[in-house]
C-alpha cells in the first residue's frame, strides 16, 4: 500500500485547509497520508474530524518555509521544516509521493537538491495543464527554468510526452513549440535551435511552431517553451480571463433587463467558469525529479488538496516516475 | 502642409480597402496622401469614388513585397516595390510619414536600412497599445527584437515615455518591466539586468516588475519587455479573448431563454468588444526610426486605414520623431 506525504505548513490556508483536504481524501483513497508539520497543531486540528485513523500518520517537523524566503537558503537552513522533512521521506522511499502548496521555488530547489534528478534530465520542469477549446494542453515549462537552453526544451518535450500519455491516455501526443510565427525560421535563438532539435528527436510527435494566438485552439497536446514564456502565458491567462469575466459581470449588473439576462445565463456562465476552475484540476508534478513531488497552488483550499491527493495516488498507481526514468534511460543506453 | 505616403499594395485587403480608407480620410485631414503602388490600378480604383483630388497624389511602384518573403531579401531586391518606394520618400523627406499594412518584418527591416535609426537607439521597437481596466498600456517591444539585451529594454522605456507623453498626454508615465514575479531578484538574466538599468535610468518613472497576471489591471502606462515576450502576450490576448467571447456566444445561443438574455445583453457585449476593437485604434509607429513609419494590421480594412491616417497626421503635428530624437540627443551630449 502506498504512502503520500503532505506538507501541512505550506500554502496560504495552511494548516487548516490542508488538513481538511487530507481528511476529505481519506474516504476516497487506498493510500496512507503522512501529515508533515507541527505534531501538536496537526493533532489538535484533526481532533475536530471523524475519519479512518488508519489512513493518517503524523511526522513531526517544527519549522516552516515562508513564501518570501530565498529558496536555496531556506532549503539549506531549515532542515526541520515540513517541506524538507517531506522531501527526505521521498528521497528515502519512506513515501511514494509528496504534496506541497508552499513556495514553488523552495519546493523545486528542495526536490532537485534532496530528491535529485532523473539521469538524462538536465532541468526538471513544472508543467500544468491549461484549458483549450478541445480540452487541455500541457504547458511545459512554466517557471522552473527561466533561462533555458535548446536541449532543455527537447527534454521537456520527452517528459511531457510520457506524462500526457499517462495522464490523458493519448498515444503519441502532439508536441508544439510556442513561437512568434508558424514558419520554421521564425523565433528567437532559443526557439530556432529548439525547432531543429525537436524535428530530429525520435519519440517526439513534433507538430511545429504554435503561435500564442492559436494556443486556445488546442492544436497540440503539449506546448513546449522556456519557463519565462510559460509563466507569462499561464499568469496572463489567469489575469486576463478574470478581467474579461469581471467586465461581463459588470454588464450583467447594469439594469433590470441585464439582471434578468444574468439569471438566464447563470448555467452558461458557470459552464465557462468551470473550464477555468483550477480547484478541480489539482496540482502539477515536477517532471524530471527522481521521485514524485507534486506542487499544488499556494491558494489551495481543502477541495484542491483533496483533488491533488487523488491525482497523486493516480501517478503512483501508474508508475509515472518509473516510466519517465525508462524513457530517459532508453536514450542514454 | 504635410504629406503622408501610403503603401497601397501591402495588407490582406490591398489594394481595394487601402484605397477606400484613403478616400475616407481625405475628408478629415489637412495632409496630402501619396498613394504608392501600381498607378493604373490606383487610378482605376480611385475612379469609383468622388473626393477632393487635391488631397491625393500617386507615386508609381510596380513591385509588391509578399507576406512570406524574407524581409532582408525582399527589401534588397525589390527596389521598385510600393514599400521600398514609400520608405525612400520618408528618407528623402518628400513625405512626413508613411503607412503600410504589409509584412511587419519587411517594413521594419526596410525602415532600419533605408530610413535609418535615431542616434543613440540601438534597436527600433514596435509598440502597440493594449487595452486594460483603466484604459490602455503601451507594450514595447512586440516583435522587432526577439533576442534583446538589457540596454535595449532601457531604450524602449525611454522611447515609450516620449511616445506616451505625446499620445496620451500623460506626464512622466509609469514604466513597468514584464516579469515572472514582483520582487527585484525575480526573473531571467535579461529582466534582472534590465531591472537594474531601469532603476538607475534618469528620466524614467520606473514602477518595478509587473507580473503577467497584473497586466490587465493597468498598473503602468508602459510595459517593457523583449519582442518575443511582447509578441506572445499580444497574440495570446487576441486568441484567448476571441475564444472566451466565442464561448459566451455559444452559451447565448443555447435555448430560448439564453437568446433573450443575449438580446438584453447586446449593448453590454458590444461595450466589451469595443474595448478590444483594433480597427478604431489604428497602427503603431516603429519607435527609434529616424522618420515616421507606421505599421497597421495586415488585416486592416478601410476603417482601420482611415484611423491610422488620422493618427499619423497627429504624430506629424506633434513632431513625434523630433521629440524622440531630442530625448536621445540629450543623453548623448
Automatic annotation (TrEMBL), chains A, B:
The gene is plsX. Pathway: Lipid metabolism; phospholipid metabolism. Homodimer. Probably interacts with PlsY. HAMAP family: PlsX. The lineage of its organism: Bacteria, Bacillati, Bacillota, Clostridia, Lachnospirales. Keywords: Acyltransferase, Cytoplasm, Lipid biosynthesis, Lipid metabolism, Phospholipid biosynthesis, Phospholipid metabolism, Transferase. GO terms for biological process: fatty acid biosynthetic process; phospholipid biosynthetic process. It is found in: Cytoplasm. Its EC number is 2.3.1.274. Belongs to the PlsX family. Transmembrane segments: none annotated. One of its GO terms (cellular component) is cytoplasm. This is Phosphate acyltransferase.
Amino acid at each position: 500500500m502506498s504512502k503520500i506525504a503532505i506538507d501541512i505548513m505550506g500554502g496560504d490556508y495552511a494548516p487548516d485547509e490542508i488538513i481538511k483536504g487530507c481528511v476529505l481524501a481519506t474516504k476516497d483513497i487506498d493510500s496512507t497520508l503522512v501529515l508533515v508539520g507541527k505534531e501538536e497543531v496537526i493533532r489538535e486540528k484533526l481532533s475536530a474530524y471523524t475519519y479512518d485513523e488508519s489512513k493518517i500518520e503524523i511526522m513531526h517537523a517544527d519549522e516552516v518555509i515562508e513564501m518570501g524566503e530565498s529558496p536555496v537558503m531556506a532549503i539549506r537552513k531549515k532542515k526541520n521544516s515540513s517541506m524538507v522533512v517531506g522531501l527526505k521521506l521521498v528521497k528515502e522511499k519512506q513515501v511514494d509521493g509528496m504534496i506541497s502548496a508552499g513556495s514553488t521555488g523552495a519546493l523545486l530547489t528542495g526536490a532537485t537538491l534532496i530528491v535529485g534528478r532523473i539521469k538524462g534530465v538536465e532541468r526538471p520542469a513544472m508543467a500544468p495543464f491549461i484549458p483549450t477549446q478541445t480540452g487541455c494542453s500541457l504547458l511545459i515549462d512554466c517557471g522552473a527554468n527561466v533561462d533555458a537552453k535548446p536541449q532543455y526544451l527537447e527534454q521537456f518535450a520527452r517528459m511531457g510526452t510520457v506524462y500526457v500519455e499517462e495522464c490523458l491516455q493519448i498515444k503519441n501526443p502532439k508536441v508544439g513549440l510556442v513561437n512568434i510565427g508558424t514558419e520554421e525560421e521564425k523565433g528567437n535563438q532559443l526557439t530556432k535551435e529548439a525547432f531543429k532539435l525537436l524535428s530530429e528527436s525520435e519519440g517526439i510527435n513534433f507538430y511545429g511552431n504554435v503561435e500564442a494566438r492559436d494556443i486556445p485552439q488546442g492544436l497540440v497536446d503539449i506546448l513546449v517553451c522556456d519557463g519565462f514564456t510559460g509563466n507569462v502565458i499561464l499568469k496572463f491567462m489567469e489575469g486576463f480571463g478574470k478581467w474579461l469575466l469581471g467586465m461581463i459581470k459588470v454588464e450583467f449588473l447594469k439594469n433590470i433587463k441585464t439582471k434578468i439576462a444574468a439569471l438566464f445565463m447563470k448555467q452558461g456562465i458557470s459552464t465557462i467558469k468551470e473550464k477555468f476552475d483550477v480547484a478541480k484540476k489539482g496540482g502539477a508534478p515536477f517532471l524530471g525529479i527522481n521521485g514524485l513531488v507534486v506542487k499544488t497552488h499556494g491558494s489551495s483550499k481543502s477541495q484542491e488538496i483533496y483533488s491533488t491527493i487523488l491525482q497523486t495516488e493516480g501517478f503512483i498507481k501508474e508508475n509515472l516516475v518509473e516510466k519517465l526514468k525508462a524513457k530517459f534511460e532508453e536514450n542514454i543506453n
